Amino acid sequence: MSENTRKGRLFLVPTPLDFGCTTDAPLTDVLPAHTVQAAARITHWVCENAKSCRAFLKRVDAVAPLAVPLQQQAIQELPREAHKKGDHLPQTTSGADASMLIAAALQGHDIGLVSEAGMPAIADPGSSVVRAAHDAGVEVVPLVGPTSLLLALAASGLNGQNFAFVGYVPSDGAQRVARLRELEQLALRQGQTQIFIETPYRNPALMSALLQTLQANTRLSISGGLTLESARTQSRLVKQWKALNPELDNRTPMVFAIGR
């Protein structure tokens, strides 16, 4: 690289929260014009899944024409192990892998980092790419867009001054119960809202475990379909949830939160 080559920037590009949902939100309803226009100018991408990245770019192109045709966009996927285990640990994404993903920025190209839904590197992989950019002196630019965790927290009525996102709870029944009890104790003892998510097809099983495990006066908030017309947040005491005998949708991504 020539010493005179200007480095590109790494843009953190949020995407709509409707991934996996039965309907799409109009792009202009969920992303500011500045974010869409910035995405349209980018020609190099790092993503979780190339297919969903292309689908997002098609939606961008319908609003703001892409700088180069979709077929000419340079799209790289994050390592597969980063998807399941995260990419904040050395054993899941090496510095060498992440450095390769930002090589285009060192050649003067802006790069867009995207996840399948929401803000990249928040409840999704991508942090290793951001670290590599900082280490290489590449400017990191987060763009404005939806983040499901904060939308759900704001709508929950739970403590927004002290909260933690804890990812997924275990799928094994006994381990899940133990983890839920641990999170509830943190929430009740420290007043810290505990936020977690689940694969949609496990929503009903998680709901059953929550109602069987949590104390009657613990508050449980559930948000689904955020930013869609069908969006809904319900926040009730566990004893109130039990009286309703709810059945959760097993297709819609949801955000769960417990606290007092």
From TrEMBL:
GO-annotated molecular function: methyltransferase activity
Alphabetical UniProt keywords: Cytoplasm, Methyltransferase, rRNA processing, S-adenosyl-L-methionine, Transferase
Top EC class for this record: transferase
Entry annotated with the keyword Transmembrane: no
GO biological process, one term: methylation
UniProt cross-references to InterPro entries, sorted A to Z: 4pyrrol_Mease, 4pyrrol_Methylase_sf, 4pyrrole_Mease_sub1, 4pyrrole_Mease_sub2, rRNA_ssu_MeTfrase_I
Enzyme Commission (EC) number: 2.1.1.198
Matches recorded under Pfam families: TP_methylase
Domain Tetrapyrrole methylase stretches: 57-221
Descriptive protein name: 16S rRNA (Cytidine1402-2'-O)-methyltransferase
Organism: Comamonas odontotermitis
